[in-house]
Hints:
Blueprint lengths: L4 H4 L3 E5 L8 H11 L5 E5 L5 E2 L2 E2 L13 E4 L3 H13 L4 E4 L9 H16 L3 E3 L5 E4 L4 E4 L7 E8 L2 H14 L3 E6 L8 H9 L6 E6 L5 H14 L2 E5 L4 H4 L5 H6 L3 H9 L3 E3 L2 H13 L7 E6 L2 H13 L3 E2 L4 H10 L10 E2 L6 H13 L5 E6 L7 H14 L5 E5 L3 H12 L4 E2 L2 H19 L14 H13 L7 H10 L7 E4 L2 H11 L3 E6 L12 E5 L2 H18 L7 E6 L5 E10 L3 E8 L4 H4 L2 E5 L6 H9 L2 H8 L8 H17 L3 E11 L4 E3 L2 E5 L1
Parallel strand pairs: 1-2, 1-5, 5-6, 6-7, 10-11, 10-12, 12-13, 13-14, 15-16, 15-17, 15-18, 18-19, 19-20
Antiparallel strand pairs: 3-4, 8-9, 8-11, 21-24, 22-23, 22-24, 25-26, 25-28, 26-27, 28-29, 28-30
Coenzyme A (COA) binds next to helix 2 and helix 3.
Amino acid sequence: xxxxxxxxxxxxxxxxxxxxxxxxxxxxxxxxxxxxxxxxxxxxxxxxxxxxxxxxxxxxxxxxxxxxxxxxxxxxxxxxxxxxxxxxxxxxxxxxxxxxxxxxxxxxxxxxxxxxxxxxxxxxxxxxxxxxxxxxxxxxxxxxxxxxxxxxxxxxxxxxxxxxxxxxxxxxxxxxxxxxxxxxxxxxxxxxxxxxxxxxxxxxxxxxxxxxxxxxxxxxxxxxxxxxxxxxxxxxxxxxxxxxxxxxxxxxxxxxxxxxxxxxxxxxxxxxxxxxxxxxxxxxxxxxxxxxxxxxxxxxxxxxxxxxxxxxxxxxxxxxxxxxxxxxxxxxxxxxxxxxxxxxxxxxxxxxxxxxxxxxxxxxxxxxxxxxxxxxxxxxxxxxxxxxxxxxxxxxxxxxxxxxxxxxxxxxxxxxxxxxxxxxxxxxxxxxxxxxxxxxxxxxxxxxxxxxxxxxxxxxxxxxxxxxxxxxxxxxxxxxxxxxxxxxxxxxxxxxxxxxxxxxxxxxxxxxxxxxxxxxxxxxxxxxxxxxxxxxxxxxxxxxxxxxxxxxxxxxxxxxxxxxxxxxxxxxxxxxxxxxxxxxxxxxxxxxxxxxxxxxxxxxxxxxxxxxxxxxxxxxxxxxxxxxxxxxxxxxxxxxxxxxxxxxxxxxxxxxxxxxxxxxxxxxxxxxxxxxxxxxxxxxxxxxxxxxxxxxxxxxx
Length: 701
Ligand code: COA
């Protein structure tokens, strides 16, 4: 992104609010820029001073007799607009605004921030912040921040929405001997956000891994697009804290209730190949793993250990995270059996036993590394009187060098006696942890990323035939004119049907005669249901009668339902009685949608019926990810419903293509109509041939 050159590689920098007084932010920023070895021109701006830290000071930006690429603002909030305008007039390309007192303090601050943003766009200036710590680039080099330390050079770009977390990490990184290419404190993200910086870091030759700490994403679709492109080039690892607003909003559909608080983020990250960390520790463990390790070819892990317990813990975690314990080739097993003591474990995990010296590790490691059924290796070391941690470390390093495509991780579970060996590994680029679990989290991250890189792109399928937007608009118009946000069953079915979703015929009748006419037309048996958006559980108030086989029964059922509902709920308005063709039961499925504020429609698929919330057999995808049959079948295959559809225990397989078609059409429907806030098709009956939506619920805004 060309605009960001002015931030990371400026030819000249002005510090507005530069100060002589130690302890002031304007003083720290000046000191940091000078100490970082920045080679461009620096212009401190302060009307009271002629020189600051030995550099000529100017009273204002306009008084500087040269062009300015970036201005760092460290003046009180009340001054920021005037200074920014002056910068605009001076044709400054980018602002880094450290000043606090904007959106984060409430309405007044938000108004000020909006004015600032408007001003920046008027003058074509990009803005980092406000309310941020600043930025650093170790390769320019420049430290335009008020952090206490500069960074060591490295290949990690770190973007943080929290200034405090950024400062803490910088401090910690020195002890952890971690280097960075650049760090950015995002602040209030009024203009530039993590999306812009991810895009920039993806194209930065000095960055190998992109790390983000974020609390929200404002533009979900753009994030998915940009991060997805970035992730094809280098790993993007995100720790997102905070609960999403989608979770906070009360859900009235099954799908909404099933989606939970943070699911849209999980789904979106998976869609665009972003690796999600669940803590700061994980974020940096993953950063180390990705910057030092190869991407494994697959998910089969071999474990070599000198103790049983950690071996079991590792096995449990490998399986829990969806990786596989490698099944060794016959030859490997035979060689291990022939050369290790009889008591040793020769299957995976390979237990070289507590009395193992370096020789057994060397042999076992050699064998599992050369086994073509092994994609990565985890070496576990516990301290015994005969353990040789340093020698084992050398062995691991030799193995890593001999098989550069297979990641090797280690967990040295102990204290001082293992420290030297562990340090040797970490220093030489083999991630070494104290316990096995984080090593496996990293292996999982590497494997997920590998899968993302290897996934073959599948073309989006054409817009589907049989889509009638006019009918949907008319249905929605009628409902809103009637001040209803929850559609009647017959309306919801009509709208879904207009998008080619096969629904069981359903007609709203206001008299027994109309009901009979409808039933005669659609054919028996039929079901009669009270029609009112106010009645959530119709059966409980005698509002549903099934298995009706004749006109006389229809007449009778109509009156019975009306009387019963009036008795239970005398004040509720009933719109009439819905007559629906009774369908033979099929495999009961649910297809639903809940709308996430950041990422848009989130589609659910799983086992339907009345036990849907109990069974929770549901997979989710963003609608934007469901544009071809392959992706949809992948989603279906994550559920137990998939096994049923394929034909369980001798049952005939169900019409998978028709189910896929309904999911595709639902995704298109809710994307085309953003006013749909929630939708449930439950149940959708799946048959040997075809499907039928028996109950459709739609809520609009
Ligand atoms: N042009 C140039 N210099 C100006 C100026 C202007 N328009 N207005 C003020 N100054 C000078 C002041 O004279 C002062 O210089 P001095 O030290 O020589 O007296 C200097 O700029 C700073 O102004 P001052 O009024 O002393 O403010 P301050 O340094 O106490 O605070 C901020 C300024 C920006 C640091 C403060 O308002 C702030 O926002 N602090 C919080 C920062 C923060 O936490 N950011 C987010 C981190 S996550």
